[in-house]
Amino acid sequence: MFFKSKKKEKEAEKKKLLYRENIKVGCAADTQENVIRQVGQMLVDTGYVDQPYVEAMLEREKSFSTFMGNELALPHGVEAAKKEIKASGIAVMVFPEGTQWGNETVKIVIGIAGVGEEHLQILSVIADKMLAPDAVEELVKGDADTVYRLLSGEE
After folding, report:
1. What pLDDT sits at residue 2?
2. 49 neighbors 86 (Cβ within 8 angstroms)
3. In percent, how much of the chain has pLDDT > 70?
4. Cβ distance 113 to 135 under 8 Å?
5. What was the pLDDT predicted at 37?
6. In what order do the strands lie in the sheet with 104-113?
7. Nearest residue to 43 (alpha-carbon basis) of 127, 112, 117
8. pLDDT of residue 5
9. Distance CA 67, CA 101 (A)
10. Which residue among 6, 7, 36, 52 is the one 20 to 30 A from 104 at the CA level?
């Protein structure tokens, strides 16, 4: 009986992939490092990851750019930081005027934390949704509710 209640408790704690408080629109351009720190801190603040994951996101960027094309960057931690992930989730920052990402300009930055292999599924779903330039434009021009609706699939 004790284990069943713990299991139910764990299921009740299951987080959604995206919460409205993890969406910031109208962001001003900043350094790539600061943007990664901000989007990473959003993941920390909502309980998806522990603090060391933010440094792992910066480490990933040094070895491999998370720029995906189409004005989109998807920063995430290195493989060694998987232990810092408590739940799969994303955080979104929208830069209407763009912000520098290496030699590129991005307008949408989506920080990702994925438990196990879920990060690959999350990357795939986001990449699929963001393939069309009009999808990026809709996010850039939209408010937090628009971003939430488009990326979560909820109303």
Report:
1. 45
2. yes
3. 90
4. no
5. 98
6. 23-24, 89-101, 104-113, 72-73, 67-69
7. 112
8. 40
9. 7
10. 52
- Residue recorded with tokens 């284990």: 3
Residue carrying structure tokens 């488009």 = 150
Catalytic residue among 60, 76, 107, 119: 76
Backbone φ and ψ for 19, nearest 5 degrees, come out as: -115, 150
The residue behind tokens 């434009």 is 137
Alpha helix (H) residue ranges in the chain: 2-13, 32-45, 52-63, 118-130, 133-141, 144-152
Among the listed residues 94, 57, 107, 48, the one whose alpha carbon sits nearest the alpha carbon of residue 79: 57
- Predicted confidence at residue 106, as pLDDT, reads 96
Structural tokens at position 134: 């009009």
Dist CA 48 CA 26 (whole Å): 24
pLDDT digits (tens, 9 = 90+) for 72-126: 999 999 988 999 999 999 999 999 999 999 999 999 999 999 998 887 888 888 8
- To the query of whether residue 76 is one of the catalytic residues in this protein, the response is yes
Q: Check if the beta carbon of residue 53 is closer than 8 Å to that of residue 108.
A: no
Which pLDDT score, from 0 to 100, does residue 13 have? 55
